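Hey, why these numbers?
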Amino acid sequence: MTNPEKAFMENNSQSRRKFISAMSTMVAAELLLSIPMASKADSIFKPDETITVGQIMDRFIKEVPGGVLKQTVDNLKSGSPDMQVTSIVTSMFATVEVIKKTIALGANFIIAHEPTFYSHEDDTSWLKSDRVYQYKSELLNQNKIAVWRCHDYIHRLVPDPVSSSVLKELDWMKYADKSFQNLVTIPDISLKELIGYLKSKFKVDEVRYIGDLNQNCKRVLVAPGAVGIRTQSSAVNYYKPDVLICGEISEWEAGEYIRDARAKGDHVALIVVGHIASEEAGSLFMIDWLKEKFPSIKTQFIPSGNSLSFL
């Protein structure tokens, strides 16, 4: 493994999002949103055997190279390992809306990819008197719903299933580098045409970009999530892509870096598609995994959707 590739792998497995891409066009069934906080619908799904939250977590972790991590954000955000699972919801974020839809389904276990309480570590010490946190926490506790974040573990599977999912969605698996699948060499296309293609595939209305819309794009580096400027810049330097596609950036970091790189004369563009659109396919992978390993438990993917709107 090359040093830049090793560095970005290590970076993503700790405090940054992994350098991957994912997206899903699947739409969950329409469910009621207005659910009283303390009420719970009768379960639609009736598992044939008793399976606990902890058993599902352990089974997944058992398949991950290296096994249990000493330091990870992948822990329970609510509920306990001993809870018997009625049915499961997977989603990018365990938002209040997703929680209410989970209640409507009669499910009691949410497997989310991203934080529940507004920071990477889900540190709630600063939120104790916050009314939004209190509402969400009570919604989970009163309805006895467990939430497990599966972020570090899923990205440690080989190959990374989230990264593979986006490449399949973009129909780019056939163009992926055999030693590093996030680097793809696609048929020559203009930056404008590439942006249109991504908007169509990712089902987003707008993206942010830096570059000449008429420039050619062939060598593409796919980096969804929020991997950070050190990973982004080192990867651009090492792989020398025509365009870097990422989930999100700090504008004063990667945005300025790419702008200066272009001013220097480098042939590189940037497309920012959004964090959620870029990683949501991992939740769909989890659905398939659950159906294979625990076929008696009903599962449902609920998209969390984008938190931001654009005018």
User: Anything to note?
Assistant: Confidence is low (pLDDT under 50) at residues 7-47. The domain at 18-157+280-301 is CATH 3.40.1390.30 (Udp-n-acetylmuramoylalanyl-d-glutamate--2,6- Diaminopimelate Ligase; Chain: A, domain 1). DSSP finds eleven helices and ten strands in the chain.
